[in-house]
Amino acid sequence: MKLGLATGYWSSGPPPGIQESIAEAERLGFDSIWTAEAYGSDAFTPLAWWGSQTTRIKLGTAIAQMSARTPAATAMAAMTLDHLSGGRFNLGIGASGPQVVEGWYGQPYPRPLERTREYIHIMRTIFAREEPVSFEGKHYQMPHRNGLGLGKALKSTVHPLRSDIPIYLAAEGPKNVALAAEIADGWLPMFFSPRADQFYRDALAEGFARPDARHKPEDFEVASMIPIIPSDDIEAAADFYRPTLALYVGGMGARSANFHYDAVARLGYEGECARIQELYLEGKKREAMAAVPTKMVQDLALIGPLAKIKEELPTWKKSVLTQMLVFGPPQMLNTLAELVLT
User: Fold this and answer.
1) Is 45 within 8 Å of 76 (Cβ atoms)?
2) Cross-strand bridge partners of residue 34
3) Which domains does the chain have, with CATH numbers?
4) Is the pTM higher than 0.90?
């Protein structure tokens, strides 16, 4: 099990103490650091800025949203960061959800799996730099077919440092998880629980079995954010994570289309998720947080006394995960490293 540092996306501004946390993560032997984006800070700029102050640790986006950029723009950013970091960049991308895609980026959301397949194909063609990029898909055309008719197939002026920059795909539903196993180099779950391990192994196996799958299970990465919250007071630790679960289950998506809701409900919390969503969408955010059961938190996070966390860790290490992405202030990272890496 490897360890990564998740910095997330910003709320009202840069996360306090993050540069110290990154420096400490590199000192402690963390494998990677990851940035994110939603509808505020972007994923690439902070990663370049903070990554310039490191020398060894890998740099990843978890995630860069596909609707925010064309495939060519994302490929350009990836090649640029890979050069600047000396080949330490991992590109994590995802389709996000219809509220953000259509509401913030002004892009259509339908058929996200089909769109993802085209997107990654174009980026890999750009990375390969074997010929000018010409692509005719349902969602992307290069050159564009409905413009002035003057578009020209082009090849990147930049020679990629690596033509096989690792691409990680964020996915929660079984079809998208299978797609990750087929066409990507890694999978980025969001709300992972060992209780769903077999469900996800089955979905990944479907993708690995496809004729053109890039990887086998043994050389495929699965990196998920795993909250680890040491505390002698289990309820206080759960309270720390309840707001996140209430937000994502209740409000990060429409009532009829919320993939985070679906992922948590599959653990056997259909009724609880419905109640959390109902309260959240009614504007009763405190009540929605209070409706998150402690058991739900414990299924999705490692919380409580250190002895309890140590006792539960082997179950997580035996799961499909290959890397835990954790977060915390600099003074807490040493404890997390001792827990996970020993």
Assistant:
1) no
2) 6, 60
3) 2-227+306-341 (3.20.20.30), 232-304 (no CATH)
4) yes
